[in-house]
Hints:
The protein is 80% helix and 0% strand.
Amino acid sequence: MNALRRVRDAFTPIVLVLGAATFLYLLWSFDPRKVWDQISGFGWGFAAVLPFQICDHTLNAFGWRLAFPPESSGGARFADLVRVRVAGDGVNYLTPSANVAGEFVRPGMLPGPLSMEVKTTSVLVAKVTQTVAQVFFILSGLGYLLHAHLFQFPGREATLGAFGVGGIFFGIVLGVSLLLMEPPAWFARRFPQAVESSAPVRALLKSYLRRHPLRLLGSIAFFMMGYAWGAAEIWLICRFLGLRLSAETALSIEFLSNLVDALAFWVPAKLGTQEGGKVAIFAGMGLSAATGFTVGLIRHVREVCWAGLGLGLYAAHKRRSRQPAAA
C-alpha cells in the first residue's frame, strides 16, 4: 500500500503538469482573445448551464437508491442521497484518486438509522452499476457512431478505445468476482482483520446480487440516463454559442466525451483532457475545433463549480462531526 501511495504521489505532479501544458497549448493555438470573446458572449448562459447539473445528480441518486435492498431503501432520505452524491463527486473530481476517494466518504456522510455495513454495500453496488452503465453507454454509442458513419475513427484511436473500454469492463468483472469469492487462505492469514471487517459487506453484496436483479438493472438504467443527460447540456451550451446541433449530434458528442473521460479517469479535475477531448471530438465530427475547445472550457467551469460545492458540503459535514467530539 505504501508503495502504491509513493507511485501515486510521484505520478500525480507529472499528470498535472502535462494536463496544464495541454490546456495552455490549446488555449494559445485558438488565440486567448478569441476564446475570451466566446466565453464573454456566452454570458447569461452560465445561469442556465450551472443549475442544469442537478438533474444529473438526481438521476444518479435514483440509481443509488436502487442499490439498497428494498427493506433498507426507506432508511435514507432522497434529499440526503442527492447531497451526498454531490459531495462524493466533488471529492472524486478534485483529488488524485482515480475517482474512488469520494466513495469512501459517502457512507459516513449519509445520515439515518441504517447500519454502516448497509450504507457501505449500497455505495459499492452503486459504484459497480454506475461503471457498468458508463461502459454500456459508451459501447452503444460507439456502435451507433460506427453504423451511422458520423465519426471517422483512425485505426489507432479505435484500437485504443476498444482496449480501454474492454479493460474497464474486465476490471469490473474481476473486482466483483473477488468481492464475492471467499478470500484465499494465504490472504486470510496475512490480513485477518481485513477479512473479518469486510465479511458483513461481502455477505450483503452477495445477498443483493442474488435477490434483487431487477433493482440492479434499474440502477444501471438510471445511471445511463444520467450519462445521456450530458447530451442535453452539450446541446444547450452550443445553442448559447450560436451553434445549432441536432439531438443526434449532441448525443454522439456525449458518447465520445464519456469515452475520453473513461480513458483519462486518473487525471485530477480532467485537467487538459476536457478541452483536448472536445477539440478532437468536434474536429472528428466536422465541427469547429475552436468551438469544441470553448465548449470544453465552459463544461470545465461548470464541473469545477459543482465540485467546489461538493467539497464544501463534505467540509461542512466534517466540521459538524468534530463538534460533538470536541464537546
